[in-house]
Amino acid sequence: MRIYGEKDVSKKALKGATIAVIGYGSQGRAHALNLKDSGFDVVVGLRKGGASAKKAKKDGLKVLEPAAAVKGAALVAILTPDTSQPAVYAEIKDALGKNATLLFAHGFNIHFKQIKPRKDLDVVLIAPKGPGDLVRRQYQQGRGVPCLIAVAQDATGKGKANALAYAHGIGGTRGGVLETTFAEETETDLFGEQAVLCGGATELVLKGFEVLVEAGYQPEVAYYECLHELKLIVDLLHEGGVAKMHQFISETAKWGDLLSGPRVINRKVKTEMEGVLKDIQTGKFARVWIRENKTGKKKYTKLLNKDLAHPIEKVGRELRARMPWLEQAR
Ligand code: NAD
Ligand code: MG
Questions:
Q1: Which residue has a Cα nearest atom 2 of ligand 1?
Q2: Distance CA 161, CA 165 (A)
Q3: Which of 3, 9, 193, 329 is 20 to 30 A removed from 95 (C-alpha atoms)?
Q4: 3-state DSSP call for residue 44?
């Protein structure tokens, strides 16, 4: 394992360079503002008249349409939604300078060949391990969110040095920049969000809620137990791993955890997780998702509506209305 820090950043890399950031959402805004505060000449590439363009201008940034923004930029960061990136690349392709660095914050489109970059470009990845608002906030406090770094195409031999200089500019070297590959970042990111973070965690909550409600317990009590209190546990895990959680829960909770955890998340669940990973590795997940996007997202919309119509959402809305401090606690 290789972790880069501030001392590994080349003083010459991207010196005096213009950096174009395409997209001004969660990551785009944080990267653009941090890079500007780090002394780079930053230009944001956005469609004319959109809400993001207004916001970027209000934040004091130079805003141009994507193709104009990338002209003369030594590094171009594509930070629009992953599904939009092939179209964004097609739009900027001919305007990209010779030997420019093309940077992504997630490897999907390169790894699954939805974008085939020009051969003269360096193609790199800097993926912060946190949402944009955290990347911005940590930077402002003199700290940094750790990042992953990878190089997919190194036409100039300077790809990695440029990527590292960019990571430094957004504060990443303060948190550590861990070396990976586009394949590893893409596959583990997809697996994490599907099996554990988004898919796994919400499904665990919903099934727990259903079991209690179907057994005749009040939905409100089931909500507190299965959803609301999850934050406490996640915070403990985040701060100090399993050991810190064990330190703060009761003896009875600990015994129940050790006894029933493996009963619920059993061998069968692990086998399903392995199946999810296989579908990611073989490209099946990507194929289906790309097709879903091209055919009007019908199944996606149906599944999403079903998730949002779950009874836990109704009881949750009512209970959260009594806890206005929840939003500020984040
Ligand atoms: P987002 O959805 O928050 O932002 C999208 C931005 O792109 C908006 O400003 C929108 O106006 C702009 N946009 C959309 N289509 C466009 C187009 N055709 N041309 C120009 N601009 C367009 O996106 P995000 O969540 O910041 O994700 C950006 C990248 O960062 C993705 O590759 C994502 O996988 C990666 N990433 C995100 C996170 C996260 O926490 N959100 C974490 C790590 C990596
Ligand atoms: Mg779900």
A1: 81
A2: 6
A3: 9
A4: strand
Q: Which ligand is nearest to the CA of 70?
A: 1
Strand 147-153 to 122-128 pairing: antiparallel
Closest CA relative to residue 258, chosen from 249, 271, 268, 269: 249
Question: Would you say 75 and 124 are in contact if contact means Cβ atoms under 8 Å apart?
Answer: no
Give distance in angstroms: CA of 138 to centre of ligand 2.
29
CA torsion sign for 322, 325, 329, 330 is: positive
Q: Is 111 a catalytic residue?
A: no
Please name the residue that has the structure tokens 């005749």. 216
Q: What is the pLDDT of residues 54-89, one digit of tens each?
A: 999 999 999 999 999 999 999 999 999 999 999 999
Distance CA(57)–CA(22), nearest Å, equals 14
pLDDT tens-digit map of 4-41: 999 999 999 999 999 999 999 999 999 999 999 999 99
- Please tell me whether residue 45 adopts helix, strand or coil conformation: strand
Gap between the Cα atoms of 216 and 193, Å rounded: 32
Between the alpha carbon of residue 109 and those of residues 49, 82, 228, 265, the distances in Å are: 27, 7, 36, 32
d(CA 40, CA 15): 8
Protein residues with CB under 6 Å of any ligand 1 atom: 22-28, 46-47, 50, 52, 66, 79-82, 84, 87-88, 105-106, 127-128, 131-132
Q: What is the pTM of this model?
A: 0.94
Determine the residue type at 235.
Answer: D
